[in-house]
Amino acid sequence: LPTGLYKKVLVILHDSILPHMNEPTLMMDFLTVAYGIGGAISLLALNGLFILIHQHNLEYPDFYKKLYSLLDPSIYHVKYRARFFHLADLFLSSSHLPAYLVAAFIKRLSRLALTAPPESLLMVIPFICNLFRRHPACRVLVHRPNGPEDMSEDPYIMEEEEPSESRALESSLWEIQSLQNHYHPEVAKAAAILNQSLSEIEDDISGLLELSAYELFDKEVKKKAVDVPLEYEQVRGLFGKKNDIFAEHFALV
């Protein structure tokens, strides 16, 4: 099928087509093929696949491997970002997932976050924190004081397609520590939460999934400005300060 037609079908498949089919399992081959195409088409196929896996017992052995491969720099910029992270949150919610798999997702999301825009970072940092709450075995990524300080010493293999071979559990989250010095103060504040012990209650990320750069800018503009004093001595005229060198050489006439 043409790419445009794939997108039109997959956008409405999960809520306008599958619920009205007598045998939704007939769409298994179509969705698995679409999921393997890559890019935006794979992201859109996730909705339909989720319904078949959750409600119709579809087995997809390489599902998480493919989901892991979808994590590339564009994931923080695509139009369907909110939909992807909503479903990724559901897929990674099971406590039965192995620690190496969740650690691979955490590490890859953190590495890609180094080039992500602020509105995406304010969403993905709470997302990562929720993964730590669900999977305590992955907290070793945070509590490793002697971990690598740069990419060249990091044992994590970013190019590895198989999560079990990525060596994510041997690494540390130096990327999130780097974001604590981010130019946007809200991002730096969000990243600093990993310096403290996390609460047991998960963060609600539903309101952050569709956060846009415009909303972020609008929020900053509407903040109440704080008056910053620029002088510690009260000014008494143009050259009125005590021991002012200008007053010794200039005068107003």
From TrEMBL:
Pfam families reported for this sequence: CBF
InterPro entries, per database record: CCAAT-binding_factor, Noc4
Keywords per UniProt: Membrane, Transmembrane, Transmembrane helix
Gene Ontology terms describing biological process: ribosome biogenesis
Spans traversing the lipid bilayer: 30-53, 84-106
Residue ranges of domain CCAAT-binding factor in the record: 42-191
Gene Ontology CC terms: Noc4p-Nop14p complex; small-subunit processome
Family: Belongs to the CBF/MAK21 family.
Name of protein: NOC4L protein
